[in-house]
Write a structure and sequence with these properties.
mainly alpha, 3-stranded antiparallel sheet, globular
């Protein structure tokens, strides 16, 4: 099966994973859905910042939300997304030392942070 590739869309999707706080959020909700207060407490963040990151993750299609009364609960979108997150960890374990030593990533990181704004 040949799929068309829109590199702009792919880049936006992958940027959803390219932030420490967003990765912490994903790790926090990988087993069970949680509301903002639970996420804030678990990762020791502030509500405004966490809410912005949740909005980004939802906008990228990585997570979903459901309303239950006054609470909104967030969860990983589906099993394929959960498998992708597990695969990231598996691959990272294989290349972690190379990534940690990569000088190019160290130089690009601050610029990417400015571009991303979230």
């Amino acid at each position: 099966m040949v799929m068309s590739c829109d590199y702009d869309v792919k880049t936006k999707f992958l940027r959803g994973f390219a932030d420490k706080t967003r990765l912490q959020i994903l790790d926090c909700i990988k087993e069970t859905e949680k509301n903002v207060s639970q996420i804030v407490k678990e990762i020791n963040g502030n509500q405004s910042n966490i809410s912005q990151h949740l909005s980004c993750l939802k906008g990228c299609g990585i997570i979903t939300s459901r309303q239950d009364g006054r609470n909104v609960y967030y969860s990983i979108r589906n099993e394929e997304m959960s498998q992708l997150l597990s695969m990231f960890d598996t691959v990272l374990n294989q290349v972690e030392q190379d990534v940690a030593c990569c000088e190019i990533n160290k130089r690009l990181l601050p610029e990417e942070k400015v571009k991303e704004n979230v």
